[in-house]
Every structure is written in structure tokens, then in C-alpha cells.
């Protein structure tokens, strides 16, 4: 017998932890495959004669493609459901890796590994996060954070695998194996991704916030809540992407050996994984907005704190705080979007927000490099990161007010 969605208890929606596991696996593999390019950079350049700048530009293309494609994938997920979207993304992810391993020119590699893989990777974040947020009410922040944690695990799984493969095979064979392996691992997981039945009705029955039934995507994108969400997401990523990218170089400039400097990046990543879980639990208890504002404030001052250290122990201490903060706040944007807009158009809105965040991620490294070239120091980059981070705090404080339980108000269509 079919039970009406409005009659289903919230616990029924909170039981789909298999989707969380599948989502974490997908984000881990997709981001891990993309970022494994760093492992292939030296052997590819040596074997093919392609410049390192040319090979690295594939990553820039991937970020831009992922941001733009994420908006489209999110809209398709709202219309056709998340399963068909992640299935298409999984097929493209493996195919782009396989084709990149066969590329005969640098341009072909950039198109396959950059553009095509970026499009593929964009299919996982918005649809899977939106679906997870729709399935959960009581433990929504934790569930979304666990899915997002897959991205934090990626450097600790796929990159070591890529390093092992490239030491035992040539880079083409290694990438071919990774592409086929992505299909083998992800295709079965696709069937665990499914839309929450009657999610909009269940959310209303559970007392969660939802937009007016006739609110359109265009109205939501013009709403104050989305503008604040998107601009905060952009500023947050612009604030932390520069320090993430340049801190290893800064540490080497402070006299640290290269290997020791690289471990600072690993420490940030490990702390970010813990931050996703900690902030997820706190957001469920205290409200996503409060935890986001606190995390952004910590992130801003932690970025500037790198200027106060020059020994490995000090770098580790700052990296733990900085990684905890930037890793912890990232999933909360999806939670806030779900609170303000409900599940019906969530994929589209998260796709749009992710596009803005990708632009922020692309901006930080470029500006950091320009400031270093101009001033011969990273000091202005870290100061600028703190300033942008504090700007993100100020913007986040303008979110529409929440109630005593931290829930967002019911939005009405614009004009």
C-alpha cells in the first residue's frame, strides 16, 4: 500500500544512509580522478615533451567547465531526477579519462582531461548534495557533510593509487586503468542514488521551510536569500583558495624543505575532513547559519595567521585550524539552500551557487601569484584573504532571519 508523502514520518526520510555512502564514494572518485593530474604532471611532461604549463592548464579548464556544467546538471536533476544525471556523469568521467590516456596532442589532452572531465565532475556535487538534503530532516547537516567528506578523502585515496600505478606503468596505461576503475566502482553505486519520494510534502509536514509552490527558478535566483548565499560562497572560496594553493611555496620560502612543506597541505586536507563532520553535527544542533558565520570568521583570521609562523610546528597548528574552518563551512551552503528553498528546485540553485564558488576558487591562486610577482612577498595575499574572508562574514550576516530553532523563514515569490 502506498503511503501519502505527507503522512510519512520524518524518520522514514532520515533512514537513507546508503545514499550518503554512495554520494561520498562518488564525490571521492570524481574529485580524486580530477586532482590526480598533479601526480601525472612530471612523467607526462617527460614522456610527451608537453610543457608543464600546458598540461596544468587542463586543470584550469576543468574548474571552469565544472562550474558552468554544474548549473546545467543541477537543472537536469530537478527535471529528470538525480540517478540519470549521475549515470551520465559516471559514463563521461570514465570516458574522458580513457580518451585522455590515448591523446596524441596536448590540445586533445586538454579537451578530454580538462573540458570533458570538468563537465563530468560537475554532475556529482549539486545533484547528489541536493538529493541528500531532500532525504534528511533531523540529520540533514551531518548527512550533507558526510557526502562532502568524500572530496576530503580523495587526495588520500586516488592520488596514492595514481602514484603507485605510474611507478609501475607508463602514464597512459595508468590513466587507462583509473578510467576503467572509475566505471567499475561508480556504476553500481548509481542505483543507490534516488530522489526522495514526496520530498516537498514531507518537508512541509515536518515543519521545514519551503518556498511558495509557484516560485520559479528565476524568482529564486533573484531572491535576497540566494544572492546572499551565492556571494558568500564566492567570497568564502576566493578567501581560502589563495592560501591553499600558495602556502607550500610560502613555507619553502621560509626555509622549510619541500617534502615538509607539502605535508602542510596534507594536514589542511585531513583537518578539513574532520571539519566537515564537526561542523555538520554542530549545524544540526545550533543552526547552519550560526555555524557558517563562526566558521567564516575563524577561516579569515586563520588565513592571516600564516604570516605569524615560520617553523613546521607553527605551520601545522595554523593548517589544522584553517583546514577545519574551510572544510567545515563548505557543506553548509547546501544545507542553507535546502532550508530556504526546499527540495523542488534545489539542484538548480546549488548548481548556480557552485558555479559562483568555482569562480572564487579560480580567482584566489591567480591573484595570489600576481601579488607575489608585484611585491615579492605573500604577505598581501594573506592579508587580502583575511579581508575577503571578513567580507564573507559580513555578507553571511545579512541572510534573512531564522527562527529560534535556526530554521529559515518561508520564502515567497518575488514581485
From TrEMBL:
Keywords: Membrane, Transmembrane, Transmembrane helix. SUPFAM superfamilies: MFS general substrate transporter (SSF103473). Gene3D superfamilies: MFS general substrate transporter like domains. One of its GO terms (molecular function) is transmembrane transporter activity. The chain crosses the membrane at residues 20-41, 53-74, 80-99, 111-136, 142-166, 173-193, 227-252, 258-279, 291-309, 315-336, 348-372, 378-399. Residues 16-403 form the Major facilitator superfamily (MFS) profile domain. CDD domains: MFS_YcxA_like (cd17355). This is MFS transporter. It comes from Variovorax beijingensis. The lineage of its organism: Bacteria, Pseudomonadati, Pseudomonadota, Betaproteobacteria, Burkholderiales.
Amino acid at each position: 500500500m502506498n503511503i501519502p508523502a505527507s503522512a510519512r514520518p520524518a524518520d522514514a526520510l532520515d533512514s537513507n544512509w546508503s545514499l550518503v555512502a554512495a554520494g561520498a564514494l562518488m564525490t571521492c572518485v570524481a574529485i580524486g580522478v580530477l586532482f590526480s593530474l598533479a601526480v601525472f604532471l612530471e612523467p607526462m611532461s617527460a614522456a610527451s615533451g608537453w610543457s608543464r604549463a600546458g598540461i596544468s592548464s587542463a586543470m584550469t579548464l576543468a574548474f571552469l567547465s565544472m562550474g558552468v556544467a554544474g548549473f546545467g546538471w543541477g537543472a537536469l536533476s530537478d527535471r529528470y531526477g538525480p540517478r540519470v544525471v549521475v549515470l551520465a556523469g559516471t559514463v563521461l568521467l570514465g570516458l574522458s579519462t580513457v580518451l585522455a590516456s590515448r591523446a596524441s596532442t596536448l590540445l586533445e589532452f586538454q579537451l578530454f582531461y580538462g573540458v570533458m572531465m570538468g563537465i563530468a565532475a560537475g554532475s556529482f556535487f549539486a545533484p547528489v548534495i541536493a538529493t541528500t538534503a531532500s532525504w534528511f530532516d533531523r540529520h540533514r547537516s551531518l548527512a550533507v557533510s558526510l557526502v562532502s567528506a568524500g572530496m576530503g578523502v580523495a587526495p588520500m585515496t586516488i592520488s596514492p593509487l595514481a602514484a603507485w600505478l605510474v611507478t609501475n606503468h607508463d602514464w597512459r596505461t595508468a590513466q587507462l586503468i583509473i578510467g576503467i576503475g572509475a566505471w567499475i566502482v561508480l556504476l553500481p553505486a548509481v542505483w543507490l542514488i534516488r530522489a526522495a519520494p514526496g520530498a516537498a510534502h514531507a518537508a512541509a509536514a515536518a515543519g521545514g521551510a519551503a518556498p511558495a509552490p509557484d516560485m520559479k527558478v528565476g524568482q529564486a535566483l533573484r531572491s535576497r536569500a540566494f544572492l546572499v548565499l551565492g556571494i558568500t560562497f564566492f567570497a568564502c572560496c576566493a578567501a581560502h583558495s589563495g592560501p591553499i594553493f600558495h602556502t607550500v611555496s610560502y613555507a619553502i620560502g621560509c626555509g622549510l624543505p619541500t617534502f615538509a612543506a607539502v605535508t602542510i597541505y596534507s594536514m589542511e586536507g585531513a583537518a578539513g575532513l574532520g571539519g566537515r563532520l564537526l561542523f555538520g553535527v554542530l549545524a544540526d544542533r545550533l543552526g547552519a547559519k550560526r555555524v557558517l558565520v563562526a566558521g567564516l570568521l575563524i577561516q579569515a583570521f586563520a588565513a592571516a595567521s600564516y604570516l605569524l609562523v615560520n617553523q613546521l610546528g607553527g605551520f601545522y597548528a595554523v593548517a589544522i585550524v584553517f583546514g577545519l574552518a574551510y572544510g567545515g563551512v563548505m557543506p553548509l551552503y547546501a544545507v542553507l539552500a535546502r532550508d530556504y528553498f526546499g527540495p523542488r528546485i534545489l539542484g538548480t540553485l546549488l548548481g548556480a551557487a557552485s558555479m559562483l564558488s568555482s569562480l572564487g576558487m579560480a580567482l584566489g591562486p591567480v591573484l595570489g601569484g600576481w601579488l607575489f610577482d608585484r611585491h615579492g612577498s605573500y604577505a598581501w595575499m594573506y592579508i587580502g584573504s583575511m579581508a575577503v574572508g571578513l567580507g564573507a562574514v559580513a555578507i553571511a550576516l545579512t541572510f534573512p532571519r531564522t527562527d529560534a530553532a535556526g530554521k529559515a523563514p518561508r520564502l515567497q515569490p518575488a514581485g
